[in-house]
Structure formats: C-alpha cells, structure tokens
Amino acid sequence: MATHTTTTAVPGRVTFPQVAMALQTVALFFQAVTAGMLLSSSHGYALHDAGSKVMYGASMLYVVAAVLAWRPGGGSPRPILYATGFLALASAQVVLGVAHVSSLHVPLGVLMFGLSATALLRMLSTHRTATRPPR
Length: 135
Known about the structure:
By secondary structure, the protein is mainly α. Helix content is 79%, strand content 0%. It has helices spanning 16-40, 44-73, 78-98, 102-131. Helix 2 (44-73) runs antiparallel to helix 3 (78-98) and helix 3 runs antiparallel to helix 4.
C-alpha cells in the first residue's frame, strides 16, 4: 500500500525557495553596485566578475529550491518554470557580459533585478497572507 504525504510550509518560517530568491535578488543588486564601480574604481572589475559567479550560482540554487519545494508536496510546477526562465536570462546575461555587449547587458541586468525583486516581494506577501489567522 502506497502512502502519499504532503508537505506545507510552517507558518512564520522562512522556506528554502524564499532564501534562494532573496540571495538571487541581493546578488543582482550587488551586480548593479559593482557595475557602477567599474566606472570609478580599479576594484570594480574583480568585484563584478566575482558577483557574476555568485548571481549565476544563486539562479541555479533557485531552480533546485523550486524543484525541491514542488516535488514532495505535489504542488504547481509553475515556480520551476519561472526559475528556469530566470536561469536562461542569467545565462544570456553572462554571455553578453563576457562579449562586452553593454548596450544589452546593462538593460537586461536592470530587467533581471526588477523581475527578481518583484518575484521576491510576491513570494513574501503570499507567504505572509497564507500565515495570517482568519479574522
């Protein structure tokens, strides 16, 4: 006899997808700061280069977190699609950065930060709404 268990987030606790999304958003903000430093500091390049690796790793981590959150509970796979799409954007960003195509690299970075921040806020507000006691 097979048993099926479902998992749900514990109210008030931070989830792995939330941490992964927050890390991704912070890494993108760091990239924006270090992009500005490229214009005024000799350390800007090294920091931006290191940050790009962290940002890409954070995007991969978010895919893993989305899969792990979906699999045990049998929920919607939609977050996996979002995370995978974001990883595709991050891959394009890396290619554009390595090729020094600033005319596309910079606007894509701004778009990515906006998307990541919006998704994080949506994720946190949904989590907070779900954990509120009914009135």
